[in-house]
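input
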Amino acid sequence: MPDRVSETAAKSYFRPDIEGLRAIAIGAVLLFHAGVSWAEGGFIGVDVFFVISGFLITGLLVREWNGHGRIDLLVFYARRFRRLLPAALLAIVVTLVASWFVLSELRFPGVADDAAAAALYISNIRFAVNAIDYLGAEVAPSPLLHYWSLSVEEQFYLFWPLIVLVSLRLLGLGRLWVVVGLLVVGSLALSLLWTDIAAPWAFFSLPTRAWQLGVGALIAVGILRLPERTPPWLANATTWLGLVIITAGVLVIGKQTPYPGTAALIPVVGTTLMIAGMTHTPGLPARLLSTRFPRWIGRISYSLYLWHWPILVLVPIALGVESLAFNLLLVVLATLIAWASTELYESPIRHGRVLAMRPSRSIITAVAASVLVAVVAIVWGQAVQGQRWTPSSVDQAVVRSIELPEPVRSGPVPDDLVPPLNGAYWDLPAGYDDDCHLDFPETAPPDCLYGPPGAQTTVLLLGDSHAQQWLPALQVLAEDRDWRLRAITKAACPMVEATVWNSPLKRGYRECDEWRERALELIEAEQPELVFVASADKYQLMDDDGGRLEEGAEAIWAEGLTTYLQRMSALAPVIVMADTPRVGYDPAECLATSDGIEDCEVRRDVMVDEPYAELEAAAAADAGAGYISATDWICFEEDCPLVRGSWLTYRDSHHLTATFAAQLAERVGAAVDAVTGGGDDDGA
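output
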């Protein structure tokens, strides 16, 4: 993230206006992270920092080449480590210790892994992987999430001096812009492509962010600078225009904007215009940014970036206070901590007043310190987590009993809870491990069969993760009823004839549209005796122009659900598994951090969406499909308990645990018989 020019370069080339420009960048980030509603695009402050860093680092390398005819890579890397690593590692260690005190044992191991990735400057890769992990979509944000941008910059610093050095030796300074330009074009093209097909990787990865640092490099080598004879009025107008563009980006860009994509051009163009406009003409914008306060904020911006996010995440949890006013107070606190960190810790190390070392020893010490912090974090996280719990085989005697144990509504969590709270996340249906639950890009149906070998009665399970949650119960029925059960579900893909918005991909979910058609082809090919289908209801629909539908969504959803069920019912008998009640929060986290089970809200009128249940039942009836609801199995008249006997009912805010779903097998079977006329309806 924010990075200042090194001490050596500062003596010969210092831009106080650029230091002040950092204040604009960090200010945008702070407003966004504090939750200011009109600053949803404040995250583009990171892009501003990227352009500044590319400009300063490339200028530093070029000036060293011009002055000495060489670039001392060892000295460069030593300076980078001394500038960035001490503060970064201190913030990581303090955040890790604070997380151990503040967060539950369920969340801490994940933060420890984040700390290890941050210490090794690979957190952008970790967060990209987590962002496309549908199971982790509801995990609370990490207090170390902001380290992704530091990882991007450090990875850039690792490769960029080598690229510049080789280019200067082979092409000379006059043609360096050719190499930089090719990198910018290639990286931008990749960014546009990945934003459409793999948005998390486009957002977090170096290859798709390098063009922003490269644009800063083009300014440094003179390609994007204004001519020397540019009239002062034009230079000032250029600077003001850049500031307006950046401000517009903060106000207009939102959390749902496909990003980086073309939207990232806004902060990059704005920053380029500001740097270019202030280069030769110190007009009013440059003079304002060079005043004491903006420069002070810019000087501590690196530390402020490091400290503000852990404070905004952990302090509200520790104190149980959440409000915009409180967050703004925390921003002030973070500013004071950043100032103290800069003056009392970072500067003495950076300027060699403490820990003065030769470049080679500085690098060795830095690498050793990073590895040590990473190892300690991993070991600590594993020690807290303990042995990872995995679902045991289903007890057939238990699941064949239609009676469910009594709810536990108060007191401590049972010691023999299954799954245990730290295993709730992993209590998944078999389809996840068997690759039968398709990820976002996948549309080809795999061969996923359950039930006795040689079974002749084909049954299909189709839908999204709310269909996959019923696989444990259907597996029991498949063994009991000699079913050839083919279960294929797709993440975040409802069985509704309509295009839905995919938040991780930040676009219309066209892969879901393709999968639904393939699912119909699968039904036609398999000719099943029965098709089970289930979907969640919390989806944002898209309009015909590719925008998110704001009005009339419920009617269009009902029509789309009915239409698709009709198409399925024309091919085979269909049973709709009604959507299950939603907890609305992480139940395991609540139980782990509460004094008693009674502290976790489970009111039926909150968890059950009765209007949607009526809509879903009507769609099934209109399509001639059967309809089974588990709501009265999960809930009582007033509540939907999280614990039944020694069983945890929910693994997250809206999915049943695989263990509990298996216990409902007998009830599902009785309901199927009632719907199809295959048996009496005593258990329906």
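quick obs: The CA atoms of residues 180 and 339 lie 35 Å apart.
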